[in-house]
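Appendix C reproduces, verbatim, an entry submitted by the partner laboratory led by Prof. M.T., so that reviewers can inspect both the input and the predicted structure.
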Amino acid sequence: MSTPPSGLDTPVAPAFASVDDVVTRLAEVGYLASEAVATTVFLADQLGKPLLVEGPAGVGKTELSRAVAAATGSELIRLQCYEGVDEARALYEWNHAKQLLRITAGREESWDEARSDIFSEEFLLPRPLLRAIRNEGPTVLLIDETDKADVEIEGLLLEVLGDFQVTVPELGTITAVQRPFVVLTSNATRELSEALRRRCLFLYVDFPETELEQRIVRLKVPELDEVLATSLVRVVEALRNLGLRKAPSIAETIDWARTLVALGATSLDAQVVSDSLGVILKHTDDIAKARTKLDLPSILV
């Protein structure tokens, strides 16, 4: 998707022609990007740099990578990070059960003969990082919730994202044919290393401004009345300012809009809000706080 560094075999033209092109093409696949988001995506594509997207949960970080993949006709390969994810889950491992069957079947062979066979492509299980490096077509590599992985995994990411190559001792060095578009996401639950940050372009995504969130709601739930959509977004913004345990995400805003359509609601009154808060808030104490502190008359003037 972008010009590869020295060592990659095939130069690939950037996927996006301009920042406006990013805005247009992401919108065509249902992602309304702000100017800041579109500019950073454009630069990541032009410069061939990984894109580190940080922000609170539910602001569309993961969805951005899906939209880039859809807009560019790329395959999306996802590494979901979690505590304890290791090289075998992220990069590759050997199919030990199949290797054992092969050794058992060839009992008359010497070990040298068996070894040359069992450590071959047939027995290799590529995981997301290796799959992305070996993929010959346009690829978006999503390393999701990077901050949830152990610090040790960052060393592996530095090696892979630095040269886009992997050394499998039994097979040799595998170098990417073309550089994938890489998106790393983080909810900032822990600080990522400076070394990893230096290799990336950085984008902080917060909850969208009022006008943009209204457009998102209208795009995703076109059957919702425009006035009701405006009221809904105002209430969601007020909820986010209450200091809740879990602020409503964009996805939950959309779910609430669909709920109002299903209920046949024509306005947001205290009863409708109280009855449907469980759609948008996920903790009992948050719901209780919203019912006591949400001042609907002042919000919906």
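The radius of gyration is 24 Å. Additional entries are available on request from the coordinating office.
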